[in-house]
Amino acid sequence: MTVQKNTIRKTATTPGSSTAMSAGPTTIAHAQHSEPNVTLYGRIAAGPVGYVSWPDPPDLHFSIIVDDAYNGIIVLDGQPSLWETGLRNMALIRTNRYENLTPGGVRVRIPLHAPAGMSQREFARQIVANSQKFVSYVAPYSAPKNIRGSRMRSGEYNSSSYVAGLLSSVMGYAPSISTPGFQAPGWENPMPGHFFKGEAIR
What we know:
Elements: E1 17-19, E2 21-22, E3 37-44, E4 60-68, E5 72-80, E6 93-99, E7 106-112, H1 120-133, H2 159-171, E8 176-178
C-alpha cells in the first residue's frame, strides 16, 4: 500500500505547550498506526470574516482531528447554530462532528499529546466522549471583544473557547499554543467543564 506523506516542518516544543507546524497539503492518507494521532487544525475563521481583525493578524477557527487506524478520522469543533433548530436557538454553540474528511484551508497543525498518566488512546477516546456530552444550544456564540480584538469578554465564548474547553475537560488544563501570524481569540477563555458533563443550565 502506498501512503502519501505530508511535508510538515515541526518546530521544537516545551512541556505544557504546543507549537504550530507549517501546514502542508490537506489531503491525508490513512496511515496504519497503533495509537491515534490527535491534532489541532487551525484555519481562517468563517472565511472572509476571519480577516475582520485587519490590519492585525487574521483569526483562526480550530478543529480537533482524531486519526485512528481502527476508527478512521473524526473531526470535532464548535459551531454557531443556524436555522437547524429554529429561530430561538440561532447563534448558540453546538458540537460539530464529521468523519473521514479533513478540513480544507488549514494554516497550522499542532500535535496534541495525552497528559501524564493517560495513554494516547484513552486521551482520544475521552475527547470524543466529552464532545458527545456537550450541552449544545445553551451558550451564545460571541464575537471577540470590540469585534476585532484578540480576546473574548469574560463569560463569552466562541469556537476556540469550545475546543480549549473540550481539551481542558480531558486534560485538566487547556494547552498553551503558539500560532505566529494569526490570532486565536477565545482560546484564553475555555468553556467551563460543566458544559462537557451535560450539566449546563439554560
